[in-house]
Design a protein that fits this description.
Helix 2 (about 20-45) runs antiparallel to helix 3. The protein contains six helices and no strands. The longest helix is centred in the middle third of the chain and has 30 residues, at about 75-105. It is mostly helical and about 180 residues long.
Length: about 180
């Protein structure tokens, strides 16, 4: 009878497997945000500005950290999920900066968001034409709205999503650290 019990006990999954769920969820949610942004460019023709592109990188970092959290056991997983949460909060911070630029509260710190200027006040029309970018890009202060009539820009949605994802990841990390 003990041999049967021992065989059943060894057939059970390791105790650590249920803890992988939060890491997989955080990884999927973190990757979903930049994939949705890329999809909105492809399907709806929304053009990203430089700040829009910057907001995507912390999501990829958060997704990678959460995927690494799946591969490691115990407290290391909690640490990686905590770092993924901080990465999500970084993208929320960039989103807050972007909302401020859209609202005209401050100028964008990125040179790609500013209109090109000629070499000086005495520049000719030809000088100004040569200083223009080869392909026009969307200015950072022009808000993009996904849902017509809803006054929440894509940058504001990113801010809210990043805050929510960061809070979720930090909460999951805290629970795993206590377990």
């Amino acid at each position: 009878m003990r041999a049967i019990r021992a065989g059943v006990a060894s057939a059970r999954p390791p105790r650590d497997i249920p803890c992988m769920g939060p890491a997989l969820l955080i990884a999927a949610l973190a990757a979903a945000a930049p994939l949705f942004a890329i999809g909105s460019e492809t399907w709806w023709g929304l053009a990203p500005c430089a700040l829009c592109l910057w907001q995507r990188w912390p999501y990829w970092v958060a997704a990678a950290l959460a995927v690494l959290g799946v591969a490691v056991p115990g407290r290391a997983r909690a640490v990686l999920l905590g770092l993924a949460g901080l990465a999500a909060l970084v993208t929320a911070g960039i989103g807050a900066l972007h909302v401020g630029v859209e609202q005209g509260w401050w100028p964008s710190p990125l040179p790609g968001c500013q209109a090109p200027t000629a070499g000086g006040a005495g520049g000719s029309i030809d000088d100004m034409m040569r200083s223009l970018a080869a392909a026009p890009s969307k200015p950072c202060d022009a808000a993009t709205y996904l849902i017509p009539g809803l006054p929440v820009s894509m940058a504001a949605m990113n801010l809210l999503y990043g805050l929510g994802l960061g809070a979720l990841a930090l909460l999951a990390a805290r629970r795993l650290a206590r377990a």
